[in-house]
Amino acid sequence: MEYILIVEDNKNIRETLQDIFELSGYQVSTAVDGKQGYDSIIASCPDLVVCDVDMPILDGFELLTALNQRMKDTIVPPFLFLTAKVETQSLRQGMCLGADDYIFKPFDYVDVLHRVRLRLDKRLKLLKGGDYGATNVDKEQFEKIALPCDEGLILVSFEEIIKCQADRAYCTFHLANGKSVLVSKPMKEFEKLLLSHGFIKVHKSTIVNINYAKKYLRGKGGQLVMSDSSIVYVSARRKEKLMNILRQQTSIRIQAS
Known about the structure:
alpha/beta
């Protein structure tokens, strides 16, 4: 299990990030200032550090500077800075110190998880000398998405999702077990992540897992019949791209509506 250290003096932000990472399958510890963060990194060597810039005792830049001096002969863990600052000088200072990325406040948790995963994968590849490829456990662990709903954050496997449909400021995830999850965020917040996992946007309000499509009905736009017997409308401008994909899916029937 990969280990993330959060260094953040704001309790609400610290606890929110901890919940997000733990629900996504990471081991997490926290530090409330730069000095505590420095001691934790030296003692436990986390796989990745998410660190605020403005903190008491040692700020984020001072922390990374101290680590560079102490860990000259070893690899400093990937550093993602949390900041509300967008000044070019501040950003350049962090990158010159070796920061791997910036997360801007207020942040979106989907984007945070995506950035963290990218940096951990890069680190894994580096440690393996370029031989990329996580273990089966690693792959299974991170093939899930955290969805915010009335019950809090729930973790759902991408393979379980039939489709995601927009509903104004909300969206609904329909799952293979027959359940639906109403999510308190718009569909656009998840679009990039879903598309990167092979989902297809067939309409401005619908993204589908093509593995659950059973039949395509031709028409001006078209309709997909999904495995749960639901009908998904395909916009005319997305029809051609979808048809190219469907022709490679021998299990999907294409017929006139």
